[in-house]
Amino acid sequence: MNPIKQLRTEAKMSQERLAAQLNVSRSTIAMWETGGSNPDKEMLAKMSKLFGVTVDYLLGLDTEKGPLTVTDEEALDQELISLLTSLTPAEQEKAAAFVQGLIANREA
Length: 108
Fold this sequence. Notes:
Elements: H1 3-10, H2 15-22, H3 26-34, H4 41-51, H5 55-58, H6 72-85, H7 89-107
Helix pairs in contact: 2-3
């Protein structure tokens, strides 16, 4: 059985509920479960965190589910990456300039 479908059914979760939690359509979940398409890195990271398994398990590269251990720093990194990738290129430049300003002020 597909790892995503297996985890979803073990969690007694419908495709609709998983789709809502990941902010994708139900048909996207169905495609992932049937092998019609594959989730991107961001979705793999979200599902890994949601189900508490490794990305390798989700990809079918590992038969052991985990346990997944995510440090606070790794969780912050994932959150920041997710936020930054949701910005337009112009907004990303402004965010980078803002962070550089924070670092410059800290070093002053």
